[in-house]
Amino acid sequence: MHRQQLIHTWLEKTLPGSPFTLAPASADASFRRYFRASFADGSTRIIMDAPPSHEDCRPYLHVGELFRAAGAHVPEVFAQDLEQGFLLLSDLGSTTYLAALTPDNANALYADALGALAAIQQASRPGVLPEYDRALLLREMMLFPEWYIARHKGITLSDAETAELLQVFEAIIAVNLAEPQVFVHRDFHSRNLMTSSPNPGVLDFQDAVYGPITYDLASLFKDAYIHWEEAQSLDWLVRYWEIGRQLGLPVRADFNDFHRDYEFMGAQRHIKVLGIFARLCHRDGKEAYLKDMPLVMHYLRSACQRYRELRPLLKLLNKLDPVEVQVGYTF
User: Fold this and answer.
1) pTM of this prediction?
2) Could you give the CA distance from residue 187 to residue 25 in angstroms, rounded to a whole number?
3) Which residues pair with 33 in a beta bridge?
4) Are the C-beta atoms of 187 and 219 separated by less than 8 Å?
5) How many domains does the chain have?
6) CB count, 10 Å around CB of 318?
7) Is residue 86 located within the same domain as residue 134?
8) Three-class SS state of 11
9) Which domain of life is it from (predicted)?
């Protein structure tokens, strides 16, 4: 409530003579929260509340400028107070892709999303965003043994199992780092894309980096919150690859090589996400993320079943969560 009172005071000072009502808009997996201010004339604005003790608004502002210059539809910044951690933003609406997607509109919505992603990637250049380097890729995956295996499952790995897991991590990182590099949103999925005009509205980009070209595709098509049959997601992936080649994006010349990159990138992401979801539950009390774990595990198992380098991880997953495994397409 203290933060909300501060927002009220700040907004009254920022927009004098404009009475408003404030209501929660959304919260995410970090300490950031969002409020919607509604004004007498029917207009609305979004206030990002990012407590400075936990969050830094500057990366959001920096990436927002980069993505806007690239042609992506990101929120406009009307006012900022970095000392208090407040941003006043344009309102991109309240309908996420997750809420809007149906089998009938998926092709059109994903085509728009891929258009926005391609525009961001075309604007890529080194040296303006943090590198998605080996240290970061490994640090993310290490959340899995710490939070998923040890804390969530209550299992202690043997030295041999730990060594085997780290060997798999190194194999994944080797493929990730060999990929062509572009701007990476890092959470380009159905909860962070809004149906808007122009479509989509792109949110939650403050953790963007310069890294593997397939990362955002794995986020989008192996989404933790919505599942599509593999034949469908492969069709979208092929479309992106074909368009990427036409646009001169640094995609692999051979689709099989591109698909393997995508699969290994997905594995890195899903290992991380299982660790993050476990941490959100056990450290932050956000148990809702537990219901999304089975889909993430399904994606990870499927990739591990397919590639020899990942088989030791599949063996470990079968020990942690014994289930029947169904495999899709193999390349």
Assistant:
1) 0.93
2) 19
3) 27, 49
4) yes
5) 2
6) 13
7) no
8) helix
9) Bacteria
